[in-house]
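Hi P.,

Sorry for the delay on this. The queue was packed all week, but I finally got your sequence through. Input first:
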Amino acid sequence: MTALLYLQFGFGQLPPVFGEEYNDKAQHSEMIKTYLTPQRIVWQSDDSIESMQNAESLLKKGNGQVAVNEENLFRLISKADKKPAILLDYGKQIHGGIKISAGIRADKAPVKLRLRFGESVGEAMSDIGGKQNATNEHSLRDFIIEVPWLGSVEVGETGFRFLRVDVVDAGIDLPIKSIEAAFVYRDIPYLGSFESNDERLNEIWITGAYTVQLNMQNFLWDGIKRDRLVWVGDMHPEVMTINTVFGNHEIVNKSLDLARDQHPLPQWMNGISSYSMWWLLIHENIYNYHGDLAYLKEQETYMIGLLDQLGTFIDKDNKEILNGHRFLDWPTSEKPEAIHAGLQAMMVMTFEAGSEMMAILGKNDLQLKYEKVAKQLKKHRPKDITTKQAASLMALANLHDAEKVNKEILTKDGVQRMSTFYGYYILEAMAKAKDYNGALRVIRDYWGGMLDLGATTFWEDFDVLDVANSGRIDELIPANNFDIHGDFGEYCYVGYRHSLCHGWASGPTSWLSQHVLGINVLEGGEKVKIDPHLGDLEWAKGSFPTKYGVLKVSHKRNADGTIKTEIDAPEGLTLIN
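Then the structure:
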């Protein structure tokens, strides 16, 4: 399955051919540009033929080539008191821009059009600034262009699903053949898959995969509208999704190396101490999945320097005292006790991972050194932890009992006070507590809650308390409803600045493959342990990319409650049941 198939045909529908779109692909490159027609007209300024004609023609697939003799084209006709506008929906969130092809007309002067891209209908209908905080930050999404006579213009590079087009000047009669989305993405196959008897979970799995794929641009970005940067902490859930869906991909190494080279020690990556720790934890993950010893050796000098630097930020009571920006995620950013608890847990996990990496590299003295530091750090156990984010890390680091944390904190108030970033670690902690049914409920309610509001990719942030009386992102908002995109948000994601395609929100994709399908990769990808947990599901099946090829598994619950498992493993892969 590819991004184009997902985009055009939906979930689980793989047509044998797709020749209706045309594309411009660089030879031997994964990056591809494909032109897409709008799926529907959401809104137009008026229905009179004096302002707008043949709008439905925009929904017909074309060939992108203008001609001198075309009839019945879409026409925008403006007067001093009436300047027409139209809002188009391209069906799903994409990355790229717009190509507008104009027909022949009497006046050969270029015509000015205002374009407003939006991840939601509300954003595409907004003006820059104001209470709802629409911006042109990181990528331009609201600007004026000139469309040539009998020709095409292609502009824009952002994340969007919706486009509003307005005529700027009066006295214009502009025939338009097409307004196509120029969809730019990495054309790679979905080697991993997940299916079950629960279509909601199936949709969540593929949405997480697609969210990350859109962010696999020049580097592995956090978001395709905002920030379009390599944030190393954000990368951890993204890399787990790439491991699960696309396998060993060069964009991960490229992005990790960029972060390393841009932040020579003693700098913290992105200015955040926890993000330097995530860098090392990602290296542990990708080695465990892919076993690339040569690449790990390239990190040896920096990795040892980083671990030794981290070791200087531990006080006499074995408590972390990290400097720099002390950050876990935004919802905990004003809670120092939660940040400390999370950083203490991360220090434990980082030194344990460092010890493991040193053993692989044959540095036995450093293996013992970092193992000793991890044990010392465990002697300090932060107390009075109430946030789900910090509690989940404490459970994963074995600083608190996972079952107790799950019962007293993680399951309290359902999916309130979740975050899309740390939601992944909350799920991981629930799995450690063996609460698989609870974790599946969280996935359905929290990530499914975004789908219920029209999401086709997962968001930078989502607060379920904002859902009450809020409209969908793919509809005009009634006057008595809230706009889930424009009316909410805190910190960096106030209003329309909020990114609705953020890779750190993809956690359920790797979680479902690891814990429901039970695919646990071990020993540098040489072995896989199959340990399924169906929870309340009747069956689940899927595939997983390994270093030896694609592994396929299928699990079905028998009448007596036992699980029947079928496995198709590539040659060379060792299985552990």
